């Protein structure tokens, strides 16, 4: 079984990278101080944001690989595993911001940290920064580092947390920009999504597995559920679940026109376990029950 090095504290990770620990729950790590390394699989008990300035082989995140170019940000939530697949030793460069969940507990950021969905993105969904965006990110890191070097007072935690939140808000903006600048690639994903749904409903999968979920569609398209959901919402203006349900309703309308099919039969064909669930969703989305819609048409 493949070995994974676990880091339970910020101090352990600082020591691993030859950095001093100024605060036990938060750190800005200079990766150039770390010893050269090759193959490595690591698990963190804290939030980690990597900014890499060197191409360092294939980055493995979960079961996927990503040819990790310089100048990208990768986000990891607590408990996630990441690693570098490289036969040769390389010298890490760049910065890493790490902060423990306990550090933001009780703050506004702690209450809303789940809204930053990119902490659950896959490595190949990393944030690629322009030169001006890099300067913004490094400015935020510099402010955090300055506070960590300042003698602790009653303002220290508030200022550090505010700067972490500011950095995350900038990352949200930059991801919005990335969704736009990769519009062609994104439209290709939407076309595959539409094709995936068509193929699904033309098969016996609905009867066997039920309605397709967002997680299922994301997996089939080799994307994380969060990235896929964010991409669909940016491109269509509605959540991925709404998109799937709209597709189901379109399929239902076509089949309702066939008087030889009972409404219960249509419900089961589409993947509903119970016909009343089909009736409820149809009324919610269309404004009529399936029976009323059939009578109107």
From TrEMBL:
The keyword Transcription regulation applies. Signal peptide: none annotated. It comes from Mucilaginibacter yixingensis. This is AraC-like DNA-binding protein. Keywords: DNA-binding, Transcription, Transcription regulation. SUPFAM superfamilies: Homeodomain-like. Residues 191-296 form the HTH araC/xylS-type domain. GO terms for molecular function: DNA-binding transcription factor activity; sequence-specific DNA binding. The keyword Ribosomal protein does not apply.
């Amino acid at each position: 079984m493949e070995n994974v090095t676990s880091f339970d504290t910020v101090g352990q990770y600082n020591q691993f990278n030859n950095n001093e620990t100024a605060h036990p729950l938060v750190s800005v790590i200079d990766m150039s101080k770390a010893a050269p390394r090759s193959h490595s699989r690591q698990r963190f008990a804290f939030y980690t944001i990597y900014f890499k300035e060197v191409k360092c082989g294939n980055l493995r995140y979960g079961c996927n690989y990503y040819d990790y170019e310089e100048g990208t940000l990768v986000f990891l939530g607590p408990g996630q595993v990441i690693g570098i697949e490289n036969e040769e030793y390389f010298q890490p460069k760049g910065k890493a911001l790490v902060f423990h969940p306990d550090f933001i507990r009780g703050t506004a950021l702690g209450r809303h940290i789940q809204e930053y969905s990119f902490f659950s993105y896959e490595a190949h969904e990393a944030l690629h920064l322009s030169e001006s965006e890099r300067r913004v990110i490094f400015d935020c890191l510099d402010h955090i580092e300055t506070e960590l070097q300042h003698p602790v007072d009653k303002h220290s935690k508030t200022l550090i947390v505010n700067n972490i939140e500011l950095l995350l808000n900038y990352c949200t903006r930059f991801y919005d920009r990335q969704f736009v600048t990769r519009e062609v690639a994104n439209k290709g994903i939407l076309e595959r999504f539409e094709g995936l749904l068509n193929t699904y409903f033309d098969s016996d999968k609905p009867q066997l597995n039920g309605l397709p979920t967002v997680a299922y569609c994301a997996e089939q398209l080799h994307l994380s559920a969060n990235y896929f959901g964010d991409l669909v919402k940016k491109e269509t203006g509605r959540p991925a679940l709404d998109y799937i349900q709209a597709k189901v309703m379109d399929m239902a309308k076509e089949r309702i026109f066939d008087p030889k099919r009972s409404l219960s039969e249509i419900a089961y064909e589409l993947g509903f376990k119970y016909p009343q669930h089909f009736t409820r969703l149809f009324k919610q989305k269309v404004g009529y029950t399936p029976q009323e819609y059939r009578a109107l048409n």
